[in-house]
Amino acid sequence: MVVGSSFAGLTGALELRRRLGDDAQITVIDRRDHFTFIPSLIWIPFGHREPDDVTFALSPVHASQNIAFMCADVIEFDIYGGRVRLRDGRSVPYDRLLIATGPELAFDAVPGLGPDAAGCDQSVCNLEHAMGARAAWNAFLEDPGPVVVGTAQGGSYFGASYEFLLNARHQLDGAGLEEIPVTYITPEPFLGHFGLNGVGDSADVISELFGSLGIEGIPNSAIRESRPGEIELEGGRVLAAEYSMIIPPLRGVAPVRSHPTLSDEAGWIPVNDEYRHVDHREIFAAGVDIAVSPPAKTLVPAGVPKTGYMSEHMAKIAAHNIAADLTGGTHRRVPFDEMGAIAVLDGGDRGLILKTDHVIGEAEHPHLIAGPQAHWAKVAFEKYFMATRRRGFVGP
Ligand SMILES: Cc1cc2nc3c(=O)[nH]c(=O)nc-3n(C[C@H](O)[C@H](O)[C@H](O)COP(=O)(O)OP(=O)(O)OC[C@H]3O[C@@H](n4cnc5c(N)ncnc54)[C@H](O)[C@@H]3O)c2cc1C
After folding, report:
1. Which pLDDT tens digit goes with each residue over 100-127?
2. Same domain for 244 and 123?
3. Distance from the CA of 309 to the center of ligand 1, in angstroms?
4. Distance of alpha carbon 372 from alpha carbon 367, whole angstroms
5. Are residues 129 and 224 in the same domain?
């Protein structure tokens, strides 16, 4: 059984089918009936994508691979009974479980933060939020003022906040609103840290980029409170904000977090190099929901980003090992810090391509390429991803 059907869960289920053949019974449960290509949500507020461009229905994809798909909310993992319990009262048994439930958006950890609070914050972490951010952006353009973009303490989707920041600047400049100030706030200890202690010369590249665009970046910042029209940082500085987009702190989802032996205090699942739970042999986890320690302690808590690419990689390893458990064969071990990562940060008409062969620690060949090709690389990747995944293909 797989719980979650986004980057990690969808890949894990398709890979399990590929490895286990037609006879294995595979069930996938997700509370959403659609897959969303989250990386493109940064374009939704500016009207560059519509919901249909970035989503597809999960049921037909799973049906085409003979995978049972249930659109339901898991409320409890009954580990000792080998079942998951659903909000609608059903309970579903499993032999092996892959948990791919991603993060919970912890807006409530910062006073006033988030689109449902009284402040001015928007979010692009899911489709509903991104559509709300679009409505707010259109209203903002009627009477524009200072913009604040960033990540709250305990957040880790740094790439998303850099992308939104650069896209917002690009939109404002295109609308003749060059005088509108845009400020970037982040728990990263330096700009271009990305939660990874930097990639190559990312600190210099980001600082130069900010300088050329007139963006003030405030590293080591933590938000004390978000209020209508302003954001107060720890230390007392108050930033005027007519529009803000802040990536919230993240934690594990409630049924994982509340289980006494499944996760750590923040709700992240401890796994070994097989992406198997350290205490429960029959349980695997992949994606944002796994526990990873930051490369070094930072002044303000900053999480390690687990990208879509990494989430899929983990899911493939977990699926390989589940298949090895069930059918024999060797197990595969890939420590998280030895995993490579490729990320494309779009900036509207330019951006950055980052590639590292080690997510954490000394990378031998870190690459950082800045320029307009980053924008087109992201567009090409989006098209390739949507075309392949909606046909049930997850690559070799
Ligand atoms: C705005 C933004 C832009 C990003 N851009 C990029 C990018 O350019 N490149 C990149 O590689 N990464 C990017 N990321 C990161 C990427 O989106 C994540 O790495 C990826 O979504 C993680 O996949 P996941 O499957 O682990 O978790 P998620 O995508 O969070 O999926 C978890 C799934 O589990 C389901 N679920 C959760 N709880 C339950 C429950 N109790 N019952 C049933 N179902 C449940 C959810 O409905 C969801 O479908 C971005 C993230 C954001 C927010």
Report:
1. 999 999 999 999 999 999 878 999 999 9
2. yes
3. 11
4. 16
5. yes
